[in-house]
Amino acid sequence: MKFYLRVEGVNLGNFVFDTQDLSTVRGGSLLLLDSMERLQSSELPASLCPVSTGASSGLFAFDADSRTLAETVREAVKSFLSRDEALRHATFVVDVLAAQSDFVTTRESLLAANRWRQMKAPSVAVPSLNSKTGVEACDIDHVRPGLEPGPGGNPVSRSAYIRREYGREQRQGFYHRETGVDNLPPFVNDFGELTEDQSRGNLHHKMAVIYLDGNGFGAIQNELCQSEEDQRRFNQTIKSLRSKLLQKLLQATVGKPEWTTSAGQHRMETLLSACGKSRRIDCRWPG
Known about the structure:
Elements: E1 2-10, H1 22-40, E2 49-53, E3 57-63, H2 67-83, E4 91-98, H3 103-120, E5 148-149, E6 155-156, H4 158-170, H5 173-179, H6 191-195, E7 208-212, H7 217-224, H8 228-253, E8 268-272, E9 279-283
Antiparallel strand pairs: 1-3, 1-4, 2-3, 5-6, 7-9, 8-9
């Protein structure tokens, strides 16, 4: 029998936008972006064939002899997400459904099941409780216990620590991975470096924000994606167009004086949005 599995990272306000630290925000965003690839590379009891994967969600097809066996796949996915050192600090919902004759009905039923499960789940992932007393709150998210050394020696939570380190590590690799463009310069580390340019007069410490939203995508998919293959082509097309957009943006800006700091760093920062359907690009706009 054919089944579909839908998994989605939810409650992103507690994994991406719960801090003002840029590296932590970037790290949470990119971990969700990578989560579906990490899932596919894991050892599961069934081969999950991707139909559509976004920044924090994925729709997969797989075969199982019964509903009971399909549930074991769902449990295996949940287990992987709860054991992964980074992803276990996020909250995910996972549901499976037997394929119906109408693909759109199946897809929307899975989305509804995910939303219902989200409403019943905690909004903050707490992988383990800590028995220590007198632990300070995290200096970055101000909610979780501070158990790791953070910036300036202040304690940070394990969640913030992992996200921040991943964000710092992936700051340079994101653009190459998304576009395939080689020999890129280093990118700025923070908003200060992004905007600092006293030669630009009143544009010093100013930035432009490009917000690309996915409003209306649900209606477009309902109209155009009437089958699994339609959905797969739609997903591939969106990813290809997104890559081309970033490629052209890099080609138009890399090496230009107004986009380059005195240290040779490129003035650009890309973040995922809370809905997982769009990008926010912060950049030093030529003045």
